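Hi F.,

I've been meaning to write this up properly since the lab meeting, where we talked about keeping a consistent format for the predictions we share between groups. The idea is simple: the sequence comes first, exactly as it goes in, then the structure tokens exactly as they come out, then a line or two of notes. No screenshots and no reformatting. I'm using this chain as the first example so we have something concrete to point to.
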Amino acid sequence: MPNISRGAVKIIDGDNGMAELTADNHLQTINMGQLVPEVYDTILITYNVDDTINTIQYKTGGAFGTLTASLVLSYSGGLLSAIART
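Output, unedited:
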């Protein structure tokens, strides 16, 4: 497994979560199931002009169905820095 550099985000397991090495060398993990616990059958992704992911929408009833959750991703220096759930 490659080294995780300070401040970088690496996907550890795309199905279960990710981890970030903090500035004080602690490994902080995120369980993706905690971000979107609702039921959904469709995921829509929008991108920024630099090809980074901007939002992820979770819906039931297809692309035009009911929005159950949305994640807004923020970046700093080209690295993922925050995920806000709405």
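Notes:
The longest helix spans residues 32-35.
The chain has a mean pLDDT of 77.

If this format works for you, I'll send the rest the same way.

G.
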